[in-house]
Amino acid sequence: MPARAFVDCHSHVGPSGDDGARNVGEGVELCRDAVASGTRLLYATPHVWPDLRLHEARERRFREAVAEMATLLEGLELRIGFELTPDRSLLDDDPRRYRLEGTAVCLVETPFSGGLATFFAVAEHVENAGLTPLIAHPERSLSLVGTHGNVDALLERGWPLQLTASSLTGRSGADSEALAWRLLGSCDRVVVASDGHGHHRPARLDVAWNAVRERLGSEIAARAFDGSVLGVAPPPAADDALSASGS
Ligand SMILES: [Fe+2]
Known about the structure:
This protein has helices at residues 24-37, 56-71, 117-128, 151-155, 174-186, 206-216, 218-225, 238-244; strands at residues 6-8, 39-44, 47-48, 77-80, 83-84, 105-109, 132-136, 161-164, 190-193. By secondary structure, it is α/β, with parallel strands linked by helices. It has one domain: Metal-dependent hydrolases (TIM Barrel, Alpha-Beta Barrel), CATH 3.20.20.140. The protein has a six-stranded parallel sheet. A three-stranded parallel sheet has the order 1-2-4, covered by helices on one side. Strand 1, helix 1 (24-37) and strand 2 form a beta-alpha-beta unit. The longest helix is centred in the N-terminal third of the chain and has 16 residues, at 56-71.
């Protein structure tokens, strides 16, 4: 991977009526900040909440907004995905509509508190559809962190994990930070994403990248930030494209 060519598979830069960017202008600002930090492929993954489902009109407006944003951005490939909050109503849906574009992966978040039964049911539903659930920010779930957390019940499923960049630098507390580092150092299929929501939580990966490279080395850092765990790659830089074409 070039020094900085990050793949960020989880963000709320696309306006969708959730708690992320409120309009195209705000989304573009967040994306430009992401580019400045080294991100080259960014997924806009709005929440699919029990009380904010992906109904047709919402999906259409979101896709139109992201398409408009893409025309205003340089040096960034913007793709679409969704972040599923576990809810039994999702068991009636075809998970394929929620895939991260260009992959066979669905982003499923762990609940911040409470039991994990619905979470496991939704993740298994994704798996039964022939897809892979990517488990969003397990380090932030009270059911998984700390001495009472049951993270082993999750790890034995073998699903890839997505850690939130700011967890690695302590934003979510010491227990989350400790679990994030433990998972990153011990599991092969772990990616780091921004879960960027706005200026208070930007879609940047540079600080976490430096911390991971320093603490765990370049190999783990590359794997966690370059998209290889998901089977995607950032687009070539303009210079690379020119040399590949022989011009
Ligand atoms: Fe999120």
